[in-house]
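Journal club side-thread
Mid-discussion, someone asked how the predicted structure for our own chain would compare to the paper's figures. Pasting it here so we can look after the session.
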Amino acid sequence: MGVVMLMPAVLAIPAPASADIAPNPYPDVISVWEPCAPDTGVTVIVDFQALDKQKVEVRCAPGGPHNGYEALHKAGFTTEDSRRFPGAICAINGWPRVEDLGPGVCHDITQPDGGFWSYWHGSPGGQWLFSSGGAGTYVAPVGSVEGWAYTNRAEEAATSAFRVPPMDGRGPGLQLPDVHLTSDDQLAAAMDWLTLATISLGELLVANPAADNVYIDNLVAYVNALVAADFDVTIPEFAPVKQALAQAQTVLRRVRNDLPPLFGGGLTPIPLKLGPYLMAISATQDGPAVLDDGTDLAAYAASTVDPDTGYITNSPALGLWYTDAPRATALLEGLVASGTPYPSALNQHIIDSQGENGGFGTESMEYQAQALRALVGARANGVTGIDSSIDRLADYLASQQRDDGAVMNMPIENVSMNPTVTSNASFAEAMVMVGRISEAVRAAKHVSPLQITSELAAEGPAAADVGAFAPGLDQLRDILLHGLNGNTKSDIAIATPWAVRALHAAPWDDLVPAKVTAGRVGTVKSTSAEVLATVTAGSEDQVGIVRYGTTKELDAAVDLGDFAKDSQTPINVSLSGLRPGTQYFAQVRLGSVPRGAITDGPLLSFTTAPASSNNPDDPKDPGTSKDPDQPGDKNPPGAGGNSPLLQANLPSMQGGPSVASAVPVWVSNLPAANLSTTDVRTTSSVTDLNDGSTGMSPWWPPIGALALVGLVCIGLNFRRSRPGG
């Protein structure tokens, strides 16, 4: 419950702040900023919430390791114990106060307002983790972060107790990435990674058939995720995957246990594995699930269900063995997906296990969602009488979603464990199956920030794993800085297939892209021309230029100004200072704010009229050409003429009209001097931008009377030149 039994400790005054400590990153919230310098002690953060004017204090417990109680006191905080439960913290620095809540304060574990001091752990740059143990026994290592927050149960503040992240003297460091405005690009990258990883893993297992290799569990999860995303796993490239999943000596070792003679001997099924294995194998074999020794895995799975009770049977000596809902629903999902007939008693057994609140005990969200998928699949397969059970379970799942859309992994009494990729993704996929799309999308968006993107990985150690997902920010940071190791390989093997399932089931598209339409060239004279188009800003503010030049490099520009989101604006821009009798190219370019996405209109072509002894810009002059926006103007090119009024090296885009993001989806808010060069790339300069995905060229200062107008979109420099004179 976050209330802990504690042992007394000696009060110590924290050491003075080091010169290496970054400035207070949240001065409006943090009233005391005295954290530990990196790796010099345990930083303690106390969030008083409404008790003391919303203050947060960040202090240092020098040295260590310390248990949680010692760290709190060594950082300079005072405490008062509960009178009924000595050793349990009731008040920190005198809060809560008797005058605020009445004489009942510190009588019990919880206060008259229902609140209590909750206890948390973290690491710099990471996320808060609710403590599962007491502060008197938990040992906080040097360099870690301890947290205390006053939690009001009525507000369920334990799910988001802190207003600042765990941090030490370096400041908050890397923050969670933003949610991508569209899930399509994320899903495509994740599918690419998962497809290649699945084939590689299949080849590895085929080469080592006798190994007791747990990697086959990953292979099964990969295949089932690809199937859920409508990928054809029977294509020729998946031949090694099919072969690996048909190896009896590998598969049977994973889906059943040898029972010791003392317990009756024989083989017992492992339904939590048997169901998913059956789904994957039947998918790669496009129907059957027959292993290379002739074992019919579908028939074996169906035979494990007692026809009268729906329980999963074991060896004859043991008879029936009680199975909980996760095991039963895993088996049911596999049987339904593979089209295998099974005893109807299995459905009833699962329904009978359902609680009054519609859920299945305190099982994790992964298993609650699995139960919903299994029951919906059974209904689609013709099973009747389970509508009420499905509706109740869906309502229960929806009740577990936070206001911000995230879903806890496992509800325990009044406190819920932190959301994970698995909890958010499994919830999203299951809720789509019952038509609750809005809840699903809100949860799926919490998966979005944890992808290894090409912008984040750049040419670093994680470049080979672009598209994969990390289960959390700590793991993502570790992967970006150091590449994969044994632990993070396991992390992405679990997180990525779940992310694929969520992104496919619950896609979103909040982005209405900008467009440039009706682009054409109007009146063309010997030294000027009109460019006409309609700019539709879409769901983001835009800034625009007209790029033009005598080659497709378009080395001059005219500023178009700003376009508000959701607006549609006709433009008519005059290009002046052109050379007579010369072919030109022109294009409207937009840059979004703040994403920095580039949208190009159609590439236009025109040829200026030849030079004339008369006024070259007289509308009656025979050199005037109307709407010559097709290549090969009838007017012959002339010689000589003036230089263009505006010359600048502007970026060139490959391809036609598109929306292409050139910026990382997240950056650090630490001062640049505090960032390691091996940390996450930022695009805070033109040089950085040149390394991005747009292939932009460096910008050089404009000449003459040009004014430089900068666009900075989270690190993207989009610079525009204005003609003058």
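Post-session note: The CA atoms of residues 119 and 306 lie 46 Å apart.
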